[in-house]
Write a structure and sequence with these properties.
two-stranded antiparallel sheet, 42% helix, 578 residues, 7-stranded mixed sheet, alpha/beta, binds S-adenosyl-L-homocysteine, 22 helices
Length: 578
C-alpha cells in the first residue's frame, strides 16, 4: 500500500473535481491559478489614465484588476475600444503572474518583449486536444464582454464569470452561466465542509458561504416556483453500499411494486446532471431512487455515476482480482518520481480528452531550476493542472497524461481492449471516457450470478465498448444471447473483437441505432430467445455534463433525450415478457 493510503478509504474525502464538470481547478486556455487577488483591489484607479481610455476600457478598471496589469494590456493594444482584447490580456497576465519565470519578468520589468512573446504563445495555444472542443472554441472569443459584465454586476468574481463563459460556450444564457457558477460554488462549499479550513481561511470561508447562501436565495427568488429537486446525493457517494475495509456496508431499500418482475434492468448516467434531471429519469423508471456511486471506492479513479435498477442489493460481491485502489498501486513506476508535495492517492474522473504536450512542457519548465521543493505558488499551479488533467509523474519534473492502456486498466477492461483494428487514439480516449467502470458495475450485477447459473440473455442499449458485457463475463455469468445496440462503428468493432477473443459461446447481434429498434424487432428476439433477462444501458450524457460540451440542454438535449428510448424499449420488453 502506498504511504498515503490511509486516506484512501476515508469517507471524508471529496475530490476537487466532479467528473468532467470541474471548475475549481479550471483555468481558461493556459494558465496557473486564476483568481483576482483580494489585496490587489484597484478601486478608482482609472483616474490616472481616464483621459486616455475609452468608457469601455474604464470598465476594466472598475473590475478591480491590478493597475499595472491593466496599463500593460492597454500599452499592448494601444487603441480605444479594444475592450475584449485588453480584458483578455489582463486576464492572461493575471493568470501568468503565478508562474515564477513570468513573475520575475513582471516584477523586474525586464525581458518585457520576451514576456509578451510568451504571452502571445500562451494565448494562442490550448491545454487540451479534443476534437469537439476545438471545433467549438476556435472561433469563440475567450471572454464575452457583455456577459462578463452582467455576471460581475451580479457580484460574481471576474474569474468565476470568465471560467463559466469559457466552459458553457458562446451561446450560454446568463441563467445557464449563473447555474454553472453556483454549482461550482456549491461543489467548493462541499469540499470545504469535509476539510476543516485553516484558521486564517475561516473568515474567508464563512464569507463565501454567506455569499453563497445569499446567491441561492436570490436565485430562488428569480426563478420563482421551479420544480423541486427531491434527489440528494449521498455523502459519501456509496449508493446502497460499497465494500469497505471493515466489511460491506449495505443499506436497505424497497422497490416500488411496478418495478419488480422481469426483466432486470440497469440504467446509468452521470451523477451531476442539471437540476431536475434525475427526478425526471426516476419518474420514468418506476420512481426508483437512483443509486449514486463514486467508483473511487472500487478503483484508483473517481467516477460519479447514478444507477437506477431493480436488482437485489444483498449478497453483492466484488470482481477478483481486486483492482488497484491507489495511483501508486495502479501505476507503480510513477512512485519513483512522485514528489512528496503531490499528495494525490486517487485520480479524478477519467475523461474523454487529455492534456497537450504544451501543458506538460509548461509544467516541466515551471519546475526546472528548483533544487528542492518548488515554492507554494508553483506547487499549486502544478497540482491544479495535474488534478484537472489526471497527469502522473513519469520522470524528474515530468508529468504525462495517462496512456490509453492505463485508462483501460483503471476502468477494469482488458489490456488492449480498445487498441488496434482501425480506431484512433482520440476515439479510444473518447470511448473509454464514456464507458462504465467495470468493477463498479460488476459489483451491482454480481447478484445475478446465482440467479442465472445457465447464463443470461442481455439487451445492451448504448453498449459503447461493452462495459456491461465485460462485467458479466468477468463475473462468470455466461452470455447466451446479446443484442448490442450501439451507433459507433468503432465501438461495435471493439465489442465484436472482444467477443471473439474471449471465445464466447453465445450469439452477439449488433443493431446500430436505438431509435430503429421497434416492437416488431423486439418481438422477434423475444420469440427466438424466450425473452431478455437483463436490459442494460447508459444513455449519452453529452447534454448533461462535460468540459467539452457546450450544449447542456438537460435531458431534452439532442443526445441525452435518447434516455427516452431506453424507457420505450424497456417498457416494450417488460410488456412482452410479463
Ligand atoms: N456504457 C457504455 C458507454 C455508454 S456511452 C460503455 O460501457 O462503454 C453512450 C453510448 O451511446 C456511446 O457509445 C454512443 O456511441 C452510443 N449512442 C449514441 N447515440 C446512439 C444511438 N442513436 N443508438 C445507439 N447508440 C447510440
Amino acid at each position: 500500500m502506498d504511504g498515503n493510503a490511509s486516506n484512501d478509504e476515508s469517507f471524508n474525502i471529496d475530490w476537487d473535481t466532479d467528473d468532467e464538470r470541474e471548475i475549481e481547478n479550471l483555468v481558461p486556455c493556459s494558465s496557473s491559478s486564476f483568481s483576482v487577488p483580494n489585496g490587489n483591489v484597484n478601486a478608482g484607479s482609472g483616474e490616472g489614465c481616464s483621459s486616455a481610455v475609452s468608457a469601455k476600457v474604464r470598465l476594466i478598471y472598475d473590475m478591480k484588476f491590478p493597475e499595472d496589469l491593466v496599463l500593460k494590456a492597454i500599452e499592448q493594444h494601444g487603441e480605444e475600444d479594444q475592450f475584449e482584447s485588453i480584458l483578455e490580456t489582463v486576464l492572461s497576465l493575471q493568470a501568468l503572474q503565478n508562474s515564477p519565470e513570468q513573475q520575475q519578468c513582471i516584477n523586474s520589468g525586464q525581458c518585457s518583449s520576451a514576456y509578451n512573446d510568451d504571452l502571445l504563445n500562451v494565448l494562442s495555444d490550448s491545454d487540451s486536444w479534443c476534437e469537439s472542443e476545438m471545433n467549438n472554441t476556435t472561433n469563440t472569443s475567450m471572454v464575452d464582454d457583455k456577459r462578463l459584465l452582467a455576471l460581475t454586476k451580479m457580484d460574481f468574481s471576474v474569474a468565476e464569470a470568465s471560467i463559466a463563459i469559457d466552459r458553457c460556450g458562446p451561446e450560454a444564457s446568463i441563467d445557464e452561466l449563473t447555474d454553472f457558477i453556483i454549482a461550482a460554488q456549491m461543489a467548493r462549499a462541499d469540499e470545504a465542509f469535509f476539510k476543516e479550513p485553516p484558521d486564517e481561511n475561516k473568515s474567508k470561508h464563512s464569507e463565501r458561504k454567506r455569499k453563497l447562501n445569499e446567491l441561492e436565495v436570490l436565485k430562488k427568488e428569480k426563478k420563482g416556483a421551479q420544480a423541486n429537486e427531491t434527489i440528494r446525493f449521498p455523502k459519501p457517494m456509496v449508493g446502497f453500499g460499497v465494500p469497505t475495509e471493515e466489511g460491506t456496508l449495505v443499506l436497505q431499500r424497497s422497490l416500488p411494486m411496478a418495478a419488480t418482475g422481469p426483466p432486470y434492468f440497469y440504467y446509468e448516467n452521470v451523477a451531476q446532471a442539471p437540476k431536475g434531471v434525475w427526478d425526471t429519469i426516476s419518474s420514468f423508471l418506476y420512481d426508483i431512487q437512483p443509486e449514486f456511486v463514486d467508483s473511487k471506492f472500487f478503483s484508483a479513479a473517481a467516477r460519479k455515476r447514478g444507477y437506477i435498477h431493480n436488482l437485489p442489493i444483498d449478497k453483492r460481491f466484488l470482481l477478483k482480482p481486486l483492482p488497484p485502489k491507489t495511483i501508486h498501486e495502479a501505476l507503480p513506476l510513477t512512485r519513483r518520481w512522485w514528489p512528496s508535495w503531490d499528495t494525490r492517492t486517487k485520480l479524478n474522473c477519467l475523461q474523454t480528452c487529455t492534456a497537450s504536450a504544451k501543458l506538460t512542457e509548461r509544467i516541466r519548465k515551471a519546475l526546472e531550476g528548483y533544487e528542492n521543493d518548488p515554492p507554494q505558488n508553483v506547487q499549486k499551479f502544478v497540482i491544479d493542472e495535474c488534478k484537472k488533467w489526471n497527469l502522473v509523474w513519469v520522470g524528474k519534473n515530468k508529468v504525462a497524461p495517462l496512456e490509453c492502456d492505463e485508462v483501460e486498466m483503471l476502468l477494469g477492461f482488458p489490456k488492449n481492449h480498445t487498441r488496434g483494428g482501425g480506431i484512433s487514439r482520440t476515439d479510444r480516449y473518447k470511448s473509454l471516457g464514456n464507458s462504465f467502470q467495470v468493477d463498479t458495475v460488476a459489483y451491482h450485477l454480481s447478484v445475478l450470478k446465482d440467479r442465472f447459473p445457465g447464463g443470461i440473455n442481455l439487451l445492451s442499449l448504448f453498449s459503447g465498448i461493452g462495459g456491461a458485457e465485460v462485467a458479466l463475463h468477468r463475473l462468470g455469468i455466461p452470455l447466451k444471447n446479446v443484442v448490442s445496440v450501439e451507433i459507433s462503428e468503432a465501438n461495435q468493432n471493439i465489442v465484436r473483437s472482444w467477443w471473439e477473443q474471449t471465445n464466447q459461446k453465445g450469439n452477439l447481434i449488433h443493431i446500430a441505432d436505438v431509435q430503429k429498434l421497434n416492437g416488431d424487432k423486439l418481438e422477434e428476439f423475444v420469440a427466438s430467445f424466450g425473452g431478455f433477462d437483463l436490459v442494460v444501458g447508459g444513455s449519452p450524457c453529452n447534454n448533461l455534463a462535460g468540459s467539452n460540451r457546450h450544449h447542456r440542454d438537460g435531458l431534452e438535449g439532442e443526445q441525452s433525450s435518447l434516455f427516452y428510448e431506453y424507457v420505450r424499449i424497456l417498457d416494450l420488453v417488460k410488456g412482452m415478457i410479463s
